[in-house]
Design a protein that fits this description.
The complex is a heterodimer of chains A (84) and B (246). With 84 residues, chain A is an alpha+beta fold. Chain A contains 2 helices and 5 strands, in the order αβαββββ. Classes of the chains: A alpha+beta (84), B alpha+beta (246). At the A-B interface, β1, α2, β2, β3 and β4 of A face β7, α6, β8, β9 and β10 of B. β2 of chain A pairs antiparallel with β11 of chain B.
């Protein structure tokens, strides 16, 4: 048991400096191919989620958590509401 | 994935007729009575009956479209001696000069489009260049002093097919792009929050706020499963989020 714990800690410490990309998926939309090719500047694409809906956090492209978008001073933040 | 395809019977027939029209035009232009029986026959591109003896090949090429004309080395003088009704001996410079022009005129006419490329000496078409399975076609021209073989590739067929008659039938088909136009595509909107250390992500707790390295009005990326399509700014719709494209 102790051996196992030591091994896990050792593995994680090896990965400690590894960076992974974090993305917040804020909604989805659906459009036709014609509409897609017709998109131009200043066009508005309406998403399927309400303004205050939770966002899905993707770690390396896979959903791992949910949260709410918040503004902290001039930066964007995500308050975690659910973790996998 | 390799795509192969033979020319259909209808297109082959129409292209043969088009070559035949070119041949007739050339024959009338040179006004040689003996060539009245000249005609075009379809042959398998790989099994074109090559003229016996010493033969040469000329290539006409424009973009991807290519046509190979093969015949005996003596084709020019043979044509000229018929046209001029004189002896086609190698020493006769007039016969050679006229023969070259007559043959090159035939090649250009068979090419079938304005601005035909000049024929250049070439090796015969390679195995893949004009193979039937890759859309190549072979033709044989008989009824002139020497038989000629014509090999064309798919691009040449395509170039000429665009002007082929549709046999008077209105087409019920639509362009592929038009057919795909109403296909619905799912689009995902996301904000890139940057990179984090792997260990930090394992220690997240509900209620914590992850402060991202992006401003409070970040750019939103719109993407399909195939990749990114646009970038914009997040704004409020009537009741839902919306993205105004940059």
């Amino acid at each position: 048991m102790n051996k196992e714990t030591t091994k896990n800690e050792k593995d994680l410490s090896l990965l400690g400096h590894v960076k992974v990309s974090l993305v917040a998926e804020i909604g989805q939309a659906e459009m036709t191919v014609d509409e897609l090719f017709g998109l131009k500047k200043q066009d508005t694409v309406t998403l399927d989620r309400s303004v205050d809906a939770e966002v899905t956090l993707l770690l390396n492209g896979r959903p791992v958590a949910k949260g709410e978008l918040v503004a902290v001073e001039d930066r964007l933040g995500v308050r975690l509401t659910e973790l996998a | 994935m390799e795509r192969i395809g033979w020319q259909g019977a209808t297109r082959t027939r129409l292209l043969k007729e088009r070559l035949g029209q070119g041949l007739a035009h050339w024959r009338e232009g040179w006004g040689v009575e003996q060539w009245r029986q000249a005609g075009v026959e379809v042959e398998c591109a790989e099994q074109c009956s090559r003229p016996a003896g010493e033969r040469q090949c000329w290539l006409l090429e424009s973009g991807d479209a290519a046509m190979w004309v093969e015949g005996p080395a003596s084709i020019g003088p043979a044509l000229a001696s018929h046209a001029l009704r004189v002896d086609g001996s190698p020493a006769n410079a007039l016969v050679h000069g006229v023969g070259k022009r007559c043959f090159f005129d035939l090649c250009s006419t068979l090419w079938g489009k304005d601005g035909a490329p000049s024929p250049v000496r070439s090796a015969p078409p390679g195995e893949r260049e004009a193979a039937s399975r890759h859309g190549g076609l072979g033709f044989r021209i008989a009824g002139i002093p020497e038989n000629l073989t014509i090999t064309v590739n798919r691009a040449w067929c395509q170039l000429h097919a665009s002007t082929l008659p549709n046999e008077g039938r209105p087409s019920a088909m639509v362009e592929r792009r038009v057919a795909l136009g109403s296909t619905r595509i799912a689009i995902t909107a996301a904000i890139e929050l940057g990179e984090i250390q792997l260990l930090d992500s394992l220690e997240w707790k509900v209620g914590e706020i992850l402060l991202a390295d992006v401003p409070h009005d970040p750019k939103v990326i719109l993407a399909t499963p195939a990749g990114r399509i646009a970038k914009g700014s997040l704004c409020r719709g009537r009741s839902t989020r919306a993205v105004v494209l940059d």
